Amino acid sequence: MSSFEPGRTETEQLNQLLLAVAEQRDRQAFRALFGHFAPRLKAFVMSQQADAGTAEEVVQETMVNVWRKAAQFDAAKASASTWVFTIARNMRIDMLRRARRPEPDMNDPAMVSDPEPLAHERISHEQEAERLRAAVAELPAEQQEVLRLVFMEDITHAEAAERLGIPLGTVKSRIRLALKRVRAEVGERE
Amino acid sequence: MKIHHHPSDELLLDYASGALGEGWSLAIATHLALCPACRRAVAGMETLGGGFLTSVAPAPIGDDALDIVMARLDAEPQEPAAAPVAEIPRGAEPVLPQPLRGYLGGDAGDLEWRRLGLGAFQVPVAMEDRRTSVRLLRIPAGRPVPEHSHRGLELTLVLRGAFSDATGEYKRGDFQEADDSLEHRPHAAPGEDCICLAVTDAPLRFSSVTARIVQPLLGI
């Protein structure tokens, strides 16, 4: 899975395109984003047993929402591909499963704010994302496979176990090992 | 506020991937409002999702898809939509963070609490997805949580006060994941009433008509 790690320049380019859409409503930039994301989004949606026609609808709706919500993109918090992933995830829950996904509201007065990072913790999101992805690319194939199933096919651990024909405990331990390995890379959650 | 009890990685991952159902997700999302560490963990998992989206083999897209989308953009307002700004109520910090407060239509003091016995009260939280049973519980300070049997998983998120059982003490923001093998006899801590969100698998539907009538009365 060598392509799991996008080149640094590609990541930066996509971020720039998305910022151009957010700040200047740049249609050329949007076309370029469409060219990159639409075929990937279609594969992503089709991996959830959606037929091609439905998948195409979800892709179109996702891209319209990328245009609509571009102002909410914060390059300091997430890369363009991560942000588009979250929009596509919510769209497929909405359109394919017709379900709700409750989310916290960043403007809620009850929200406990993020602690100020210590100086040595201040690495850019891009650096962190790169390290995460590099860590995934180095995981054993069986661990990558389980993570891929969970993310691409939007299925629970139990469903992943059924799909792979392995016990639920094995799925859980593979995911735990994978997350532990990936997390060691970025020093998450004390 | 220091949170000691967090949701498991499995739950956070299913929330990040989108596989988790509405009721469980409500407990996770409300915990996230109170827990920057878990927000960071979920953001990391979403970064993995972004990586998988990048690495997937692209599927051919319809020739007219771009034209259709560009035409739809013409119908959109020209100005970029500003990030939504929620109305921030004045005064004290709400007991119930979003998204829970929105589901209930008000904060803890605005709700119609129903008597549950032993001085405890509850408010059911309406879900579109009926596979879970979701409710807010209020347990009087120092009292035991009323006997409740449940099948499968039970998630509990403390929002005010505290409770403790054999597994430890749970305060605001703390999250407990219990299956039916855990025999816990939680007690609310003395001092103030304990308010917590409880999510369980939906109760089994009894086939007899009597049971169907009695079941909602018992609140099981």
Report on this model:
The complex is a heterodimer of chains A (190) and B (220). In chain A, 65% of the residues lie in helices and 0% in strands. Chain A is mainly alpha-helical and 190 residues long. Chain A folds into two domains: 7-101, RNA polymerase sigma factor, region 2, helix turn helix motif (Rna Polymerase Sigma Factor, Chain: A), CATH 1.10.1740; 123-190, Arc Repressor Mutant, subunit A, CATH 1.10.10.10. In chain A, helix 6 crosses helix 8 and helix 7 crosses helix 8. Chain A starts with 7 loop residues before the first helix and ends with a helix. In chain B, helix 1 (9-17) crosses helix 3 (36-55) and helix 2 crosses helix 3. Chain B is built from six helices and nine strands; from the N terminus they run H-H-H-H-H-E-E-E-E-E-E-E-E-E-H. Chain B has a single domain (1-58, 92-220), classed as Jelly Rolls. Chains A and B meet through helix 2, helix 3, helix 4, helix 5 and helix 6 of A and helix 1, helix 2, helix 3, helix 4 and helix 5 of B.
Write the element-wise H/E pattern of chain A from the N-terminal end onward.
Answer: HHHHHHHH
List the domain count of chain B as a whole number: 1
Order of helices and strands of chain B: HHHHHEEEEEEEEEH
Mind telling me the CATH class of chain B?
Mainly Beta
Beta-strand percent range of chain B: 15-25%
- The domain tally of chain A reads 2
- Mean pLDDT score of chain B, rounded? 85
- CATH architecture descriptor name of chain B: Sandwich
